Amino acid sequence: MSIEFILLSIGAYLLGSVPAAYLAARWYRGIDIRKHGTGKVGAANVLSSAAKWLAIPVAVFDIGKGALTVWIAQLLGLGAAAQVTVGIITIVGHNWPVFLRFQGGRGIFTTLGVVTMLSPWLGLIILVTPYLFAPLRLVAFGVFLDLAAMPMLGWFFSQPLGIEERLPVTLGLIAMMLLGLSKRVIAPRTPLSQSLHPLELFFNRLLFDRDIRDRKAWIRWKS
Q1: For the chain, how big is the Rg over CA atoms in Å?
Q2: Domains of the chain: which residue ranges?
Q3: Band (1; pLDDT cuts 50, 70, 90)
Q4: pLDDT tens across 178-213, in order?
Q5: What is the mean pLDDT of the segment spanning 66-70?
Q6: How would you label 120-132 residue by residue, b for 16+ Cβ within 10 Å and e otherwise?
Q7: DSSP letters of 71-89?
Q8: Are the C-beta atoms of residues 84 and 172 closer than 8 Å to each other?
Q9: How many other CB atoms are found less than 10 A from the CB of residue 111?
Q10: How far is the C-alpha of 211 from the C-alpha of 204, rounded, in Å?
Q11: Residue 2 DSSP label
Q12: How far apart are CA 63 and CA 97, in angstroms?
């Protein structure tokens, strides 16, 4: 294990921990974004809780920090396994940031930045797919499909997607999928879901990233 990899890993976690959504909402509206909208520390909640225009720079920052760390690993000549590891550490920083007492977001845009640097074509696929469901207000379901499909796409379509080292990249995509999905399902119950069967709660969170099916009621309650 090289000193470059160790230092880059530390830097990746700290950069990942920078909560752009939290800082933007605090600056623009003086609010703690974790107590508004969906309660997530991410660009989508900035869109609904702070300002639509503000969500764009937040999303760009979150994508950029994932892409930057992998790009630096590539510049240092680190192999695919090291690049993937550094990217995952950045996502971990976003999801469990030291600056917010380890209460972060879902890491979806940061994952997009990491994946794009590993395979631009795969990055394009996971960028576009969720927004195909936007007219149905099911973007979160599209994100679920992205996370679930990434490892299979990386393994079975490695050549068309420009992935040269299939095994380490696919293993990394599996880890990213587990990080994203685990952030959805592992959380204390809210008052709205106290009466739900655990299996129903699990699938609501897994597929729709909320405790109940009613999206409007969920957002009103979080607000």
Answers
A1: 17
A2: 3-131
A3: low
A4: 999 998 888 778 787 888 888 999 998 899 888 888
A5: 97
A6: eebbebbeeebee
A7: HHHHHTT--HHHHHHHHHH
A8: yes
A9: 30
A10: 6
A11: -
A12: 16
What average pLDDT does the segment 136-154 reach? Answer: 94
User: Amino acid letter at 13?
Assistant: Y
Q: How far apart are CA 75 and CA 132, in angstroms?
A: 34
Q: What share of the chain is helix, strand, coil (3-state, %, to 5)?
A: 75, 0, 25
DSSP state of 165: S
Q: Which amino acid is at 83?
A: Q
Tokens, residue 62: 């979150």
| C-alpha distance across the termini of the chain, in Å | 46
- pTM more than 0.85: yes
Q: Find where tokens 């509206």 sit.
A: 29
Q: Which residue has the tokens 């409007």?
A: 216
CB count in 10 Å sphere of residue 5: 17
The rounded distance, in Å, linking the Cα atoms of 110 and 166 is 21
